[in-house]
Amino acid sequence: MLDKKLQAYKKKERISQDTPAKYKDEFPFLKEVDCFALCNVQLQLEKAFRDHFRNRKQFKLPKFKKKRDKQSYTTNNTHNSIRVDFAKGLLYLPKIRDGISIELHRTFDGKIKSVTVSRTNDGKYYASILVETGNPRNKVVEPKSKACGIDLGLGHFAAVTNDFGSYKVEHPKYLRRGEERLKRLQKSFSKKQKGSKNSEKARLRLARQHAYISNARNDFLHKLSKAIIDENQVVVVEDINVKGLLKTRLAKSIADSGWSKFLTYLKYKAEWYGRTFIQVDRFFPSSKLCHRCGYKNEDLALNDRTWCCPACGETHDRDVNASINLYLVGLGRPEVKPVEQALVDDRSPYGLPKKPPCDETGSSTEKC
Ligand SMILES: [Zn+2]
Q1: Do 235 and 276 contact (CB within 8 A), yes or no?
Q2: How far, in Å, is the centroid of ligand 1 from the Cα of 290?
Q3: Residue 143 Cα to ligand 1 middle (Å)
Q4: How far apart are CA 324 and CA 160, in angstroms?
Q5: What is the 289 CA–ligand 1 centroid distance (Å)?
Q6: Which are the catalytic amino acids?
């Protein structure tokens, strides 16, 4: 069907509406699957073309999939053709007489609408079941902390500040180790002769490792975002320009650390659990502001990990300071007026104890 449409498209002919049933004689394997599976493919194909004609820039022309990429099919439930036997761990699908033994992640009640069965490129099969249920709400926990500021870092994953203080979240060790193994497997795959048996084996090992890392990372991001949403009522993050940063040198570590995914998870979880999610303006200088006195350090370079405030003498860890500033935004504190030049200021806007300025005596300058 795709081939026919593409050919018509090339010849600038009208693209005809096609049904999969026509092809059953030519390709007898089409008779093995249920009609919903075929029908869904037709609908998806038509949608792909519709999208393309509506917005050619965003939606490219549909193309053929590689056989070894992810494969999937979707089928709909009619007259109980799809059932799950929770006790026996069996999934019943149309046209398959015996139940398929599955590993269940959770039970559910409600009416099954459809199932998508997919095979990932590491050779594993998954069934994703769409269920209509009356009350999809998860249990909501009372927040312990009023607000929380999160600064996404490079060396570590994030610096977090809430009512109870600040802490840094490191990248999980298993992810680091997994990435090292991934590099080795990539190297070994590229050395194998293309199309050989050993190359296929290496490809499978590589695909499995990719799947492992992506699952492990998602698990980490889901658990962290859930914990943060459970604990805090207001969550403040920077509006980092992920797309822009991806074009720079920092690209690899950003792509690896899954920042944009993390922000997406925080956002929708905040909605689910009735929390407030704030992304501050991209130009809010969260790293440059002293959280104690509001002095703005214009000279702060990207690789300065710590800095000393010339106005109040406080030594800052760059990321922790940024997360505190975001936390203060979450508390709705009046916006800090940036101090343009270094001066000794007695005001302490957040009621924090004042420290002696560090540039007055020679001994404390060394500390900075
Ligand atoms: Zn200061």
Answers
A1: yes
A2: 5
A3: 31
A4: 8
A5: 8
A6: 151, 238, 319
pLDDT at 323: 93
Give me ligand 1 centre to Cα 292, in Å.
5
- Taking 50 as the pLDDT cut, the residues of the chain under it are 334, 336-368
Tell me the backbone φ, ψ of residue 103, rounded to 5 degrees.
Answer: -95, 115
pLDDT at 253: 60
Instruction: With beta carbons less than 8 A apart as the criterion, state whether 134 and 120 touch.
Output: no
Q: Is 52 exposed, middle or buried (0-12, 13-18, 19+ CB in 10 A)?
A: middle
Q: How many CB atoms lie within 10 A of CB 46?
A: 16
Contact 157, 331 (CB under 8 A): no
Query: What are the strands, taking DSSP E only, across the chain?
Result: 71-76, 83-85, 90-92, 100-101, 111-119, 125-132, 145-152, 158-162, 165-169, 232-238, 276-280, 306-308, 315-317
- What is the Cα–Cα distance from 149 to 159, expressed in whole angstroms? 8
* Distance (Å) from CA 15 to ligand 1 centroid: 67
Nearest CA to 229 among 354, 122, 132, 138? Answer: 138
Query: What confidence score (pLDDT) does residue 222 get?
Result: 95
CB 212 within 8 A of CB 252: no
Tokens at residue 333, please? 């504190």
Q: Which pLDDT score, from 0 to 100, does residue 325 have?
A: 92
Which residues are paired to 317 by β-bridges?
A: 306
Show Cβ contacts of residue 48 under 8 Å, excluding neighbours closer than 6 positions.
59, 62
d(CA 262, CA 257): 9
pLDDT tens, 317-334?
Answer: 988 999 999 999 988 864
Phi first, then psi, for residue 161 (nearest 5°) are: -130, 130
303: three-class secondary structure by DSSP: coil
Q: What is the token pair recorded at 203?
A: 């490809």
Report the pLDDT value the prediction gives residue 246, as an integer from 0 to 100.
59
- What pLDDT score was predicted for residue 35? 87
How far apart, in whole angstroms, are the C-alpha atoms of residue 163 and residue 324? 10
